[in-house]
Write a structure and sequence with these properties.
By secondary structure, this protein is of the alpha+beta class. The protein has 26 helices and 17 strands. The protein has a six-stranded mixed sheet with strand order 12-14-13-15-16-17, with helices on both faces. The chain has a five-stranded antiparallel sheet with strand order 1-2-3-4-5, with helices on both faces. α1 crosses α4, α5 (99-118) crosses α9 and α21 (461-472) runs antiparallel to α22 (479-489). The structure holds zinc ion. Residues 35, 37-38, 45, 56, 58-59, 61 line the site of zinc ion.
């Protein structure tokens, strides 16, 4: 059996969800609770036990157990699969030959961490305490110490059956002229974890004056790529999800200090700027605002925003945090006013959109019309290219309206006219908009039919799918046609079919329909389905009609024939409407 299916069979989906979300009954086999993926006061998050699915009517999050784990833990599909496999005791086939050694590297790191933690005593512990860290923080972030020894870790690992070669591959040991030695010596050690919480690397901070470099990393390995990870991410994820924001810093001590002061949503980049894949991690934890606390001077703050990756900037409302001169967040613990100072800095953080506006308005007199025009010209492209719900564009609009004292409607009109100018012609845009609408409606009608098919008695599911096909002849390329093809390929097993659609944009809407449709097999199943099929046929006919009307404009010479066809279609459309209105099924 497919491991995915086996896991689902063994898994109690409801109790999995209940670990994170208190649920209460909501009808037969259904449960509801407060959505863990958005903030709400009344429950719109539903769980369907029989289908093993969840769906939120508020934020439209939905899917199966794997999707749930992916979203709530902020991991990718493979990681969710591994987690649930482990819980249900299902064996996963090895993915690739490289898989096993990775596990070994993780095991080496786990052993090394135990060694480092065991050695955190005396001067090293004093050093950490001297920087203001509490025992709790030291434990939470599993800090340790690498003693001043060339082979302490090497021997410890050998005692635990790890060969020097493997230790070298993990990066905790280095080699020169065929001789192995501990890479980190006389350093406080910070374990670096992947999003699953597994230790994949270490950073060592020198504690003796003059010891260089100050920070030393274990090298990138099969399990560690610097730009893919954020320090402190597994520890911060929950707080990020709750506050919808992340504070991003540069130093490891910055993370510890801010977390200890109560800002648990803090993570550190392990490079110089925030990479796309690091941003994706924050997105998975549902951050919508980023506070970058990078450099402690005004120029640094602007540089932070100016250098922000465009792809990253589009996905979050971003702010640059400026600390008082000469301060790092990491130093704030030993400052009695530290917590207050950082809270104030967060309050006064410079929004990226403010910064963009300031940059565009620099040296321009925005009191006069020409100045306004200049600033608008500079900023408009960002607004014209924006998606409808782009939060950054919305915030930028607000700043523009406020500073330039514009009528918000005038700005909207301007954006609209610029967008239209980019299109080949107004008329085509209108036709496209009209047909977009119909396409959207058609998709909903198709989803409705599909949801009903999936609610059918499993024994007759295949028959009903064929029945729907025979009574609609879904056009090639339509969602229904694809569904029917996939259903056949997957042997008419509903869950396998859903898997194929779960990652697609239509998938979310399908889950919504499924939750709405309930699990019961209605008594008037055929009658209900027949009505939906009639509605869908009407939709398909309307699409045909639209195409004919377009041709009518382009081919006046065929007008008579085309008009006759339109008339026939109108009659067919009317017939379908009668069917679903009166409830007489076809045939
Ligand atoms: Zn929700």
């Amino acid at each position: 059996m497919d491991p995915r299916e086996e896991i689902r069979n063994r898994l109690d989906f409801k109790s999995l969800v209940e670990r994170y979300v208190p649920l209460r009954p909501a009808g037969k086999g259904r449960w509801k609770g407060l959505c863990p993926f958005h903030n709400e006061k009344t429950p719109s998050f539903y769980v369907d036990e029989a289908k093993g699915m969840f769906y939120c009517f508020g934020c439209k999050a939905g899917g199966d157990a794997f999707k749930f784990v992916q979203m709530i833990e902020g991991v990718d599909f493979r990681e969710a699969l591994e987690k649930l496999a482990q819980e249900t005791g299902v064996e996963l086939p090895e993915r690739a030959p490289g898989r096993k050694p990775s596990k070994d590297l993780i095991e080496v790191n786990r052993l090394a961490l135990a060694y480092f933690q065991k050695n955190l005593t005396g001067a090293a512990l004093e050093y950490l305490k001297g920087r203001g860290l509490s025992n709790e923080t030291i434990d939470t972030y599993a800090l340790g110490f690498a003693p001043k020894s060339w082979d302490g870790l090497l021997r410890y690992l050998q005692q635990h059956g790890v060969s020097p070669e493997l230790a070298l591959r993990a990066g905790v040991v280095a080699a020169k002229d065929g001789r192995y030695y501990d890479r980190l010596r006389d350093r406080v050690v910070f374990p670096i974890r992947d999003p699953m919480g597994r230790v994949v690397a270490f950073t060592g901070r020198a504690i003796s004056a003059g010891d260089t470099p100050k920070y030393l990393n274990t090298p990138e390995s099969d399990v560690f790529k610097k730009t893919d990870l954020l320090y402190g991410y597994p520890e911060a994820r929950k707080a990020i999800r709750e506050s919808k924001r992340a504070i991003v810093v540069e130093g490891l001590f910055d993370v510890l200090a801010l977390a200890q002061m109560g800002w648990r949503e803090t993570v550190a980049v392990l490079g110089s700027s925030l990479s796309q894949s690091q941003a994706r991690l924050l997105e998975r934890a549902e951050a919508s605002r980023l506070y970058l606390a990078f450099d402690a001077d005004e120029a640094g703050r602007k540089a932070t925003l100016a250098g922000l990756d465009v792809g990253v900037a589009r996905r979050f409302l971003t702010y640059a945090v400026l600390l008082p001169e000469g301060h790092d967040p990491g130093d704030l613990l030993t400052d009695p006013e530290g917590k207050k100072a950082f809270a104030a800095a967060l309050e006064e953080a410079l929004p990226e959109v403010e910064y963009r506006f300031m940059a565009a308005a620099e040296g321009v007199d925005i009191a006069n019309a020409e100045g306004k025009r200049q600033v608008l010209e500079e900023l408009l492209p960002r607004l014209v290219d924006a998606d409808p719900l782009d939060p950054v564009a919305e915030a930028l609009k607000a700043v523009i309206v406020d500073r330039l004292r514009l009528d918000p409607r005038a700005l909207e009109d301007l954006i609209y006219s610029q967008r239209r100018r980019k299109r080949p012609s107004v008329e085509r845009a209108q036709v496209e908009a009209a047909s977009d609408n119909l396409e959207d409606r058609l998709l909903l009608l198709e989803l409705d039919v599909i949801a009903q098919l999936l609610a059918a008695d499993p024994e007759n599911f295949a028959d009903w799918v064929r029945y729907a096909e025979d009574h609609t002849w879904p056009p090639k390329g339509s969602f229904l046609a694809e569904f029917i093809a996939v259903a056949e390929e997957e042997g008419y097993r509903p869950r396998r079919i859903l898997d194929r659609f779960s990652e697609r944009s239509e998938g979310g809407r399908l889950f919504e329909r499924l939750i709405l449709s309930g699990s019961e097999y209605p008594a008037e199943y055929k009658e209900t389905l027949d009505k939906s099929l009639a509605r869908l046929r009407e939709g398909y006919l309307r699409r045909k009609r639209n195409i004919l009307i377009r041709r009518l404009k382009q081919e006046p010479e065929n007008a008579l024939d085309l008009l006759k066809e339109v008339q026939e279609l109108d009659e067919a459309i009317e017939a379908e409407r009668r069917r679903y209105r009166t409830g007489n099924g076809k045939g």
